[in-house]
Amino acid sequence: MHVQELQDAPLAPLTTFRLGGPATRLITATTDDEVIAAVREADDSGTPLLLIGGGSNLVIGDKGFEGTALRIATRGIALEGTALELAAGEVWTDAVARTVEAGLAGIECLAGIPGSAGATPIQNVGAYGQEVSSTITEVVAYDRRTRETVVVPNADCAFSYRHSRFKAEPERFVVLRVRFALEDASGLSAPVRYAETARALGVGPGDRVPLAEARETVLELRSGKGMVLDAEDHDTWSAGSFFTNPILTDEEFAVFYARVAERLGEGVNPPAYPAGEGRTKTSAAWLIDKSGFTKGYGTGPARISTKHTLALTNRGAATTEDLLALAREVVAGVHAAFGITLVNEPVTVGVSL
Ligand code: EPU
């Protein structure tokens, strides 16, 4: 094989947390065939396999990974009319910039999200009113069960909030390519759906704005929350949101609401967003904040971001254990305060909360 291969390779530099021990072996694949060959070889020999894209949603244990780490470094942005095809290893922010330049709407509010294109369908990446599930038409993946390349149409991806079939069956699919249908709205964005973005743009919800303006506004909002990567800024040595926003049934929400009143006083309304029939999404960031973990919380090498309570950060000298200790403290504190158990969003390797 002419793919790049390293033994006892450090993985921390491949993650945005800059945490975790080495892998027994690290393979970097730059074509779909190289990806498939490496996966087949690992599967044939029964070697554990860890897929690494942009490393922006990964928490790797201090002991590292015993097995083959496969870095997906395929590249390719193909635009034909309003159809977009991205290689899994393509840098997501580059892809967004290209579509905005080409005057196409649909993913402009996902600007500034770190990571690779192939990772976006796995947790149905979303921000500022857009989710990739609205524009993905199909995902080309290698199916480790049937050992074949398959095309999974959107309807079979089982997309929901930060979830998909690929996340539900984690050992099965290796994403190779993601295809999107964008919209030609004569240089305008998709209708603005997020209240915060609409406010910043000075428009009403549902209005359209020039694409570049939508992208830049999102980048500014994200930067203000420490959610745009910057090697100099420790607030961005994170995995973005560390916890998903809890989705509660009506019954659970009523119990939660009573708990909020008891703790914070009558008239305090927790964030509540409709999340389908009989379900309400509340804000993990708010819960964390109101449980006493305010921005910048912590005195050790792992602390809460100074710009957003949902991001746990490595201040430079942390270990994965430091990070997990902080995460566990937050989960326990929020549970004690509000009876809600937060669930981590990043994938953990060799460790758990
Ligand atoms: N809030 C606080 N304290 C904070 C920050 C926020 O109390 O420090 C409360 C406020 O009440 C605010 C609410 O939390 O109104 C929601 O905050 P924000 O609009 O920042 O959204 P979020 O729910 O915290 C989600 C995504 C982000 C995405 C933003 C914008 C999840 C887990 N996170 O964050 O995605 O960028 O919305 O759409 O769904 C990510 O997944 O890694 C990520 C960064």
From TrEMBL:
The active site is at R162, S241, E345. GO terms for molecular function: FAD binding; UDP-N-acetylmuramate dehydrogenase activity. Its cofactor is FAD. Its EC number is 1.3.1.98. InterPro entries: FAD-bd_PCMH, FAD-bd_PCMH-like_sf, FAD-bd_PCMH_sub1, FAD-bd_PCMH_sub2, MurB, MurB_C, MurB_C_sf, Oxid_FAD_bind_N. Keywords: Cell cycle, Cell division, Cell shape, Cell wall biogenesis/degradation, Cytoplasm, FAD, Flavoprotein, NADP, Oxidoreductase, Peptidoglycan synthesis. It is found in: Cytoplasm. It catalyses: UDP-N-acetyl-alpha-D-muramate + NADP(+) = UDP-N-acetyl-3-O-(1-carboxyvinyl)-alpha-D-glucosamine + NADPH + H(+). Residues 19-185 form the FAD-binding PCMH-type domain. GO terms for cellular component: cytosol. Pathway: Cell wall biogenesis; peptidoglycan biosynthesis. Belongs to the MurB family. Cell wall formation. NCBIfam families: PRK13903.1 (NF010478). This is UDP-N-acetylenolpyruvoylglucosamine reductase. It comes from Streptomyces fructofermentans.
